[in-house]
Amino acid sequence: MKFMITWQMKPGRLHEALELFSAIPAEVLTQEPGPAIRLIGRWHDLVRGKGVVICESDDAAAVSQWCLTWNTMLDFEIGIVHDDAETQAIGRARRQAG
């Protein structure tokens, strides 16, 4: 499954989180989510203190655990997302079933 995780910085925590995040070596960032999660990409809107992550995992608990490592500084929303091909397949299956 692919997950879209949106995050919002908790009030007053931006500089602390940025300092912590920027200290993580680049080669470690790709491994930071853990072995059960494949990081597809992260985008940060620092001015507004929010961002989005797209990742893939068969383990929803691992995704939750990863978010919990940052939840003292960030609030999260997690949803399941589909690419174009997956969305078309879902649409075709619904059409055939209905």
Walk me through what this model shows:
There is one protein chain. With 98 residues, this protein is of the alpha+beta class. The protein contains four helices and four strands. The chain has helices spanning 14-22, 26-29, 60-68, 84-97; strands spanning 2-9, 38-45, 50-56, 74-81. Strands 2-3-1-4 form a four-stranded antiparallel beta sheet, with no helix packed on it. It is elongated, with a radius of gyration of 16 Å.
The helix-and-strand class reads alpha+beta
Which fold name corresponds to the CATH topology?
Alpha-Beta Plaits
N-to-C SSE string, H for helix and E for strand: EHHEEHEH
Number of distinct helices:
4
Spatial order of the strands forming the largest sheet: 2-3-1-4
The biggest beta sheet reads: 4 strands, antiparallel
Poorly predicted parts: none
Task: Specify Rg, calculated over alpha carbons.
Answer: 16 Å
Measured distance between first and last alpha carbons:
25 Å
CATH class: Alpha Beta
- What is the mean predicted local confidence, pLDDT? 95
Report the CATH superfamily: Dimeric alpha+beta barrel
List keywords for this structure.
Alpha-Beta Plaits, 98 residues, alpha+beta, four-stranded antiparallel sheet, 32% strand
Helix and strand arrangement:
Blueprint: E1 2-9, H1 14-22, H2 26-29, E2 38-45, E3 50-56, H3 60-68, E4 74-81, H4 84-97
Antiparallel strand pairs: 1-3, 1-4, 2-3
Task: Please summarize what this structure is.
With about 100 residues, the protein is of the alpha+beta class.
